[in-house]
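Journal club side-thread
Mid-discussion, someone asked how the predicted structure for our own chain would compare to the paper's figures. Pasting it here so we can look after the session.
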Amino acid sequence: MVNKVTLIGNLGRDPKIRHLENGSMVGKFPVATNESYRDKNGEWQTLTEWHDVVVWRSLAERAEKALKKGSLVYVEGKLTHRKYQDKDGNERYITEVVANTIKPLERREGGSGSYSSSFPAASDAPQGSSYELKDNSSSATPQQVGGGQEDEVDDDLPF
């Protein structure tokens, strides 16, 4: 089974970071994605979808430093659903993307705003650093199947 979400969009606001009682950090921010299509009259329409993104621990700390409202960002993670009670005692349901990878797609110095200058090349990164922010705190290991052999990974998936 697969639960994987990939988004490229703009931050709706700066990440909000909280420190939990156990010392963990959690960050939240909305990401807007746009889809353009022609309506029945041939006019171009743009549909904007908002996605709530959650980042944990060191990824939250790095997101707070690297991401700003309006910036273009690549987000990869999993889709989660949860329910909670609001201050009036009503049950609320929320869908969020719990990110494990975030890549700012614009240079920190600013840029012209065009896509060609928004996507950094490997040579644009300062020596010894990377644009990719990844949550390395998870201790996930490949699952073992029959006889202890690792499952083969097919990189030519059709989707």
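Post-session note: Helices lie at 57-66, 115-118.
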